[in-house]
Specification:
Blueprint lengths: L16 H12 L2 E2 L9 E2 L1 H20 L3 E2 L5 E3 H4 L3 H7 L4 E5 L4 E6 L4 H11 L8 E10 L14 E12 L2 H21 L5 E4 L11 E8 L4 E12 L1 H6 L2 E3 L5 E3 L1 E7 L2 H10 L16 E5 L6 H17 L4 E3 L7 H11 L3 E5 L1 H5 L2 E6 L5 E5 L3 H26 L1 E3 L3 H9 L3 E5 L4 H7 L6 E7 L6 E2 L6 E2 L2 E7 L1
Parallel strand pairs: 3-7, 11-25, 15-16, 15-17, 20-21
Antiparallel strand pairs: 1-2, 4-6, 5-6, 7-8, 8-14, 9-10, 9-22, 10-11, 11-14, 12-13, 17-18, 18-19, 21-25, 22-25, 23-24
């Protein structure tokens, strides 16, 4: 765990995001990346509590929508993996093999994705139309031997707290409705996380082989790189044919099912930390904050007991209203250093109680996001705390949405694409949807690539490469 020190975090995340991110994770005690295996880390209690809060949110959203939670083994038998040849070829080099016994026999792989573990069982469970729809999800880990530079929560070899929904349906239309539902569920989740994202449609050749299509979600980091924070995939019947998942319909004929899969993991927390954090550390949106308020008694000699008593009274009032709160009553640490520590952890509200507050029958509340202070009568504490938590949640989302909106710029020349990206923006250009024109974008500069097309196709323009009339607009930038 972190050693107590007097270090104050004061790093400009836009000027030096890499240093800021590493320091923010350390000072907030989200995780410890010193585990001696590249791309893997330990969730520390505080970070894990935040991630569990996020999981609780998606659990409720999914289960209220009738999607049931389950759990599949991490070990995937080789014969399962080989059922989908294109999948196996794509992940073979990234997979961790399970080797056992004197003969070093390969028993299987540690799952890089869920399909080869789940779909062989769907084949067994689905027999007739009465078994459909089948709608399950799980929260688990995925393992991939990333050859690129790893970064905790952004690019890991163990992708932790990964949720994936896998559904099977009798008709194409039912699968399309399921896709629409998943998009609506995720829109609700983004709001609760105060996380602005933009949705893109992936080019067909970047979707799973044989799939109908995919919608992906992206966030823009202070580093000017974009990161995928989820995907909704209409698999069509591609995987059903590979894994032989059929059902007998009312006409007594066998048909392949139609499938949808959706997934995202701890990258959500990476986005929240990176987008909302400031020079002092992370800022945790109230909806996912394990502790919404920290009470810091301002101790003065001879007044310790009466101040602590008042702090406990305020704590009791908040707890009765199910507002999570913690009293920092450590004697050996000055109040100023406590402020820095809790600011680094991103606790939404700090309540200060000192001798002057007692004299005036008041408390002082400090917002983490704006550092605004307000003194209120202690009888108003519940009302004011609720009001401030709601304001912080809305303010974080509104400010982040504004930042994202001004970071996307429409351009009409290749020179302007380079200029936009150099200025830490994402470029949006008209594109004719052809593979030939798409491949041109990869040669603009190091790391620059097409990300996906805007779902809004109401505007006409000309492809920036070939000049054809089109309504499609492609986002271009650098990604993790």
């Amino acid at each position: 765990m972190k050693e107590l020190n007097i270090k104050i975090m004061d790093i400009d995340k836009k000027a030096n995001f890499s240093e800021w991110y590493d320091e923010a994770l350390k000072e907030s005690e989200i995780l410890d990346s010193r585990y001696n295996s590249k791309g893997m880390f330990i969730w520390l209690p505080y970070g894990f509590k935040i991630m569990r809060r996020i999981k609780e949110m998606w659990d409720k959203l999914f289960q209220d929508a009738g999607i049931q939670e389950c759990y599949f083994p991490q070990l995937v038998p080789i014969e399962y993996a080989e059922q989908n040849k294109s999948w196996w070829e794509g992940f073979k080099e990234e997979g961790y093999l399970m080797v056992t016994g004197k003969n070093k026999e390969v028993q299987g792989i540690i799952r890089p994705t869920g399909e080869p573990a789940i779909y062989p069982m769907y084949k067994l469970w689905i027999r007739t139309f009465s078994d459909l729809p089948l709608r399950l999800y799980q929260t688990t880990s995925s393992f991939r031997y990333e050859s690129k530079s790893t970064r905790p929560l952004i690019r890991d070899r163990e992708i932790t707290m990964w949720h994936e929904i896998h559904t099977a349906h009798a008709t194409k239309e039912e699968a399309e409705k399921e896709v629409d539902l998943h998009i609506k569920l995720w829109d609700k989740l983004w709001d609760k996380l105060a996380l602005p994202v933009w949705k893109v449609r992936k080019p067909q050749w970047e979707c799973f082989a044989g799939a109908v299509g995919a919608i992906e979600y992206y966030t823009l980091f202070p580093s000017a790189r974009v990161m995928e924070t989820g995907s909704v995939n209409n698999l069509g019947q591609a995987y059903a044919k590979e894994f032989d998942i059929k059902f007998k319909d009312t006409d007594e004929k066998e048909h392949f099912v139609w499938q949808v899969c959706t997934g995202v993991g701890a990258r959500l927390l990476a986005a929240i930390i990176s987008i909302h954090g400031d020079r002092k550390g992370i800022i945790v949106p109230p909806e996912i904050a394990p502790t919404k308020c920290v009470i810091v008694p301002i101790m003065f000699k001879g007044k310790e007991q009466i101040i602590l008593k008042k702090a406990k009274e305020i704590e009791s009032m908040l707890k009765k209203e199910n507002i999570s709160v913690f009293i920092d009553s450590r004697d050996e640490i000055a109040a100023g250093r406590k402020f820095y520590e809790w600011e680094a952890k991103g606790i939404p509200l700090r309540i200060e109680i000192g001798p002057r507050d007692l004299e005036k029958n008041q408390i002082t509340i400090v917002r983490r996001d704006s550092n605004e202070k307000v003194a209120i009568n202690e009888s108003k504490v519940i009302e004011k705390v609720r009001e401030l938590l709601d304001n912080i949640q809305k303010s974080l989302l509104k400010e982040a949405e504004h930042e994202l909106k001004k970071s996307i710029v429409d351009v009409i020349t290749f020179h302007d694409i380079k200029k936009a990206i150099k200025n830490k923006k994402v470029a949006r250009v008209f594109w004719c949807k052809s593979r030939d024109c798409y491949d041109i974008f990869g040669g603009i500069g190091d790391g620059i690539e097409g990300i996906g097309t805007d779902l809004d196709e109401k505007t006409n323009g000309k492809c920036i490469v070939c000049g054809k009339e089109t309504k499609a607009r492609l986002f271009i930038g650098k990604s993790y």
